Amino acid sequence: MPVWLQAWFWGLVAGSALLLGAAVGYYLRVAQRVIAGVMAFGAGVLISALAFDLMQEAFEKGGFDSTAIGFLAGAVVFSIANAYLAGRGAKHRKRSGHQQAKEVETEGSGTAIAVGAALDAVPESVAIGASLIAGGLVELVTVTAIFLSNVPEALSSSAGMKKAGRSATYIFGVWVSITVLSSVASLLGYVLFRHFPPDVVAATVAFAAGAILAMLVDTMIPEAFAEAHEFAGLITVLGFLLAFVLSHWR
């Protein structure tokens, strides 16, 4: 299989978890404490993946300077974009309760939530594509970690969207679109950066890692702590440990 097609395929695989999570969040009545626990687990998985896979890969490709610059830039860009969208109704887009803004309360919040959900997903997909540049083989641990974290993200967000009165057409339209966008972002992560020098590739991977970490603290961890605060830390550690074991069990 051509490498560019692998990039598209693995981005689609990771993104498809969003549809799975959305279906569970919309059609099944899952207790908020369970959702929060799953969210905490997904956060731990992602933290491990960005620490031991993305950042390590970036460092090996471009050294400390490129990695640090990319990492900080990713966090800054995500934080600015997230603050902008939060002011337009997307602040609680990952919350599973009644915190999400309704369209009648905040005009344009539906669009802001959809854009925010895409903002959360794209850096992960770009990282998948960029990881194929060096050897043409995908980091299955990274794909697995993103897949496992995407399920609770979409599950919690979809449950909150439903409680905010948003239609099934809107909810699944958002997640189908982001799944497709994820595959395209992964493809572009490979196609656009494969001819760039290692420093640029390293900065790109680190940029994705910085954006992911900022996203975790801004959107996923608050939901996990709000409903499962007594055990949120422990559950996050378990997710981290699982991803750590997978990344070293080769």
Largest sheet: none
Dominant shape = globular
Quaternary form? single chain
| N-to-C SSE string, H for helix and E for strand | HHHHHHH
Which keywords apply here?
single chain; 250 residues; mainly alpha; 81% helix
Question: Can you summarize this structure?
Answer:
The protein is an all-alpha fold. It is 81% helix and 0% strand.
What does this structure look like?
- Helix content is 81%, strand content 0%.
- By secondary structure, it is an all-alpha fold.
- The two termini are 23 Å apart.
Write the layout of secondary structure elements.
Blueprint: H1 3-27, H2 32-90, H3 109-131, H4 140-163, H5 168-191, H6 198-228, H7 232-248
